[in-house]
Amino acid sequence: MRVYADILANAARNGWDYTPESIVSGSKRHFEEMKLQLNDAGYEIVPVGVRLYCNRSDKLAAR
User: Fold this and answer.
1) Listed residue (31, 51, 48, 29) closest to 39, CA to CA
2) Fewest CB within 10 angstroms: 7, 10, 11, 15, which?
3) What whole-number distance in Å separates Cα of residue 51 and Cα of residue 16?
4) Global confidence as pTM
5) CB within 8 A of 61, min separation 6: which ones?
6) Contact (Cβ atoms closer than 8 angstroms) between residue 4 and residue 27
7) For the chain, which residues make up each domain, given as ranges?
8) What domain of life is recorded for the organism (predicted)?
9) Where are the alpha helices (DSSP H) in 14-48?
């Protein structure tokens, strides 16, 4: 979202004026494109609040 905010700030400095609806729509599109790029790079996107269980990491954390 910081990158998208920078894009909007630069556009505003250049005289572009977006409606609130356009900003929301653009942020959703920007986020979806970013997720696709991360997936292509090998990352997995998980919902907020989900904690994946891994025995090894729990054992390391207990040390």
Assistant:
1) 31
2) 15
3) 41
4) 0.57
5) none
6) yes
7) 2-62
8) Bacteria
9) 20-40
